[in-house]
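CORE FACILITY INTAKE
Project code: CF-77B
Contact: R.S. (postdoc)
Sample description: multi-component assembly, three entities in total
Requested service: structural model of the whole complex
Turnaround: standard
Below are the sequence entries exactly as provided by the requester. Do not edit them.
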Amino acid sequence: MNTSVLAMPARHPAAIIALLAHHRVLATIGVLLVFPWLMPNPSVASTILIYAVFALGFNFLFGYMGMLSFGHAAFLGVGGYTAGILIAHFQLRWWLAIPAAVVLAALVALAIGVLAIRTRGIYFAMVTLALSQCVYFAVYQLPLSGGENGLRGVNLDQVGPAALHISLLDPHTKYYFFLCFAALAFGLVSRFLASPFGGVVEAVRENESRVRACGFDVERTKLLAFVLSGAICGLAGALSAIHLSSVAIESLNYETSGLVVMICLLGGMGTFFGPFVGALLFLLVQDLFSLWTEHWQLYVGVVFMGFVLFFPKGVWGTLLEKCNVQ
Amino acid sequence: MKIRIPTHNAALWLATALASILAAPGALAQAPVGTIKIGLPVPLTGPYGAEAKDQVRNAELAIKEFNDAGGLAGRKAELLVRDDKLNPGEAAARALELIEKDHVNFIVGALSASTQLAINNVTRQRKVLYISISQSDAINEAADFSRYTFHEALNPQMTTQAVGRYVFKKGMRIAFLTADYAYGHEMTRGFTRVAQEVGAQVVGELKHPLGAADYSTFLPRLQALKPDVIVFNNFGRDNQISIRQAGDFGMKKSMAFVTPVLTYTSRLAAGPQVYEGVVGGSSYFWGIETSTPSAKRFNTSYRAANGTVEPSDYGSVAYSAVKSLLDAVKAAGSAETEKVVDALAALKYDTYKGAQYYRSCDHQSVQSVLVIGSNSTSGKNPADVFKVLQIVPGSTGMLRSCAELGHK
Amino acid sequence: MDGITFELLGLQLFTGLALGAIYVLLAVGLSLIFGMLTVVNFAHGAFFMVGAYAGFSVYRVLPNFWVCLVFVPLATGTLGMLAERVLVRPLYGRGLDYPLLLTFGLAYVMVELVRIGFGKQGFPFDTPALLQGSADIGVGQFPLYRLFVIGVTALVLGGLWFFIEKTSFGLIVRAGARDPHIVRILGIDVGRVWLLVFGLGTGIAGLGGFLAAPMQGISPEMGAPVLIVAFVVTVVGGMGSLVGAVAAGLLVGVVESLAVLFFPEAAKVSMFVIMALVLLVRPQGLFGRAGLMN
């Protein structure tokens, strides 16, 4: 970072962006605090926030480490179903159910990671796809999951002591409840990225053999990154279960895996704020287009192809590039 | 190092575009105060887009009839259509949006079992009246039920009772080709029950994955069971493809083809050759207008609004749901949820096919079921695709008992 | 497991071969494109679907199945070449991910365009009169049309083998799959080769779609489930290996078919289990070359 940046008058948009990039977690949380007031309604904001966390987890693996996985829906789904089943069937408190979901998603990520890390490139993508389909199948067969009907009854109406009346039926309250967890996730990822571990992760993306030659344990780094990525996606799944009061079996489908890839690309892979921008853009575009026309998939596809061809760094990435930051 | 401020501003353009996208929803017109708003989430995109479109047309017809008759002391009704993309997560999100942003009074909708259950979960949490218009056994059960949940459509139990009793005879050998999801399992359960009651023998069941394009791996095995009747417990494209391929394998020569729900759109899509000789069930066929006065009235009204097309089975359920809902609103004299719920639960109505009412323990609409067969030559009317073999009148005997469903 | 006779097993085996034939057609195209261009074509299922619709459209105007059979791969291949030149070519050199992502978006666009042009419902497609009915193959009655599909696939594979092994263009394709840089250095216009290979791969996919039409009808969504299978088959066989595509395609078809007899619920997931197992034991696929990803 160049010190002359801070000396520029704050009115310059580029300087502001540079300042924000330096304090990225605070800046992100700042934006997220006012976000529901900018959206047509707070539930849409919650949905976007949850997808942003999902993309955040995926971006850590894809954008920063350079490993394209087509099976991340497995972690979203495992997180969702774990939290959902614990809350709906076992009436477990949310402050136990959500961490349990994260832990279980991390465990599944460990299992899949151990098997998948041995492959690279497109094979890695295909193995993750195959293993996530196996998870889909396993969850589908599980009686507690509700199978094709999905899991209903994830009714978390109140959180905290009864006297405080924090009702999740109020969409604004629900959003800020989710924001607490999202902020944690953003903070965690930022810490990891800023640490030496984060440095190795990005180095592996640039030149894996060189990193290996420098003496780093590349396999262990990959596995750790994979598990972390899975854990964050599991958190997103748990939040989604509470948001919609249900978990759909479609959340484990390869189409959901494809969705998060698109979101990351649109937003900007390998950038911190990119996943949020991608989620915002994708969901808004999809929602708006589907209000105007039933053929919204055409426009979404064209927009996406346009980005791949002309803005491969995504919206946020291109923005950063134009302002010559980093 | 100088920071270059871009003059030719792709970044600023993007930011402005984003801002205007954010501002746009607020600019949408607001409905007049006092309007009775009914949300309709249906799968406009996806394989059932055609059925969903007809649901929209039918719902709009019911709204129009209500408004033309003066509404509720001048208050008009309005339909808010949303696309749930046949995805339960999306359906729940649309339901949340309809309730929180659009402040709808009631919600009618969904076409697949999983989407209606997801919507129902959202609506009952927030005490919003919801009428489901799709087949499902689960929505009647105690776990998913609530005071605010109503089910206008048929359920697999009713359908299988009607079709099964028409086809099965004592001593017959029955085989099932079942789609491996809730719909298929519920149909198999229903048909098995009828077989036991009648004294027919179930010789085997093969389950296929939902959305399979090729059934060639299942058909030889089914043939080897030597059944008298083969029941296709699947829906939509699965139904069309599996029946076609079974016909290709020559199985029509040795066994009768039966399916629980024979939809209008499937018959039109797959053609007369494929469905030749197939017997199935349905909630409605426009052809019953010759014997049912309310059907004639409904058909005439539909044709007047839509031209020379006939209402489909799935579409007309939407009509009945919205119409009966608005009748309940009139009976209650208000659009307040609690009053309308009471009025609807007590309502006796005849919207399009005969007498109907909601059973009190599970709010299932007790109604007639049609047993139909495919018409191979439609003659002068391309919509004359079925012959009605039997109209089974509605009765609680066709439903599972309240106790069995878990209601006290 | 009662009632499993030798005849049933034999019939199921044949069914698996017919099923595998379509998989093979798709996998061969995918493998060719990957081997030559190092592009993972996520739009392959969409080309499959477009082939079916192209054949359907021509059939409405000119109801001759055999003419359509020749026309479809040419039409689909041309569309593929257009896509390659305009959309995929600019992304060369940007890494493995970008062409993959582009074809991902392309699939969405193609499917929606077909929906707009032909409606969402899909159409039935009748088996040509000559091929209707079934034949006794010793173990039971088997649909004649499916035998035809096996035959056509064998013919196409034979032609492809001849083309790749015995012609000079095929020599370039083989060399390019081995090392595209050297081929360029030798002065060969690799761009033209890529164009034709992409067209060839997508053309075969389109042919597969048209062949599948009488068996399952046509619909805009028919490409998606088949794409997943094609990927599994290509990866199991080894990306870039045609022998692998054939072997894996038949293997997957037969295993799926037999799985229905013994463990029906898992039939669809059986191919994923195979894929996971093969990749863990031999990460480059059965016949793939190690180090292809470097």
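Facility notes:
- Strands of chain C lie at 134-136, 141-143.
- Residues 6-281 of chain C form a domain with the ABC transporter involved in vitamin B12 uptake, BtuC fold (CATH 1.10.3470).
Invoice: internal transfer
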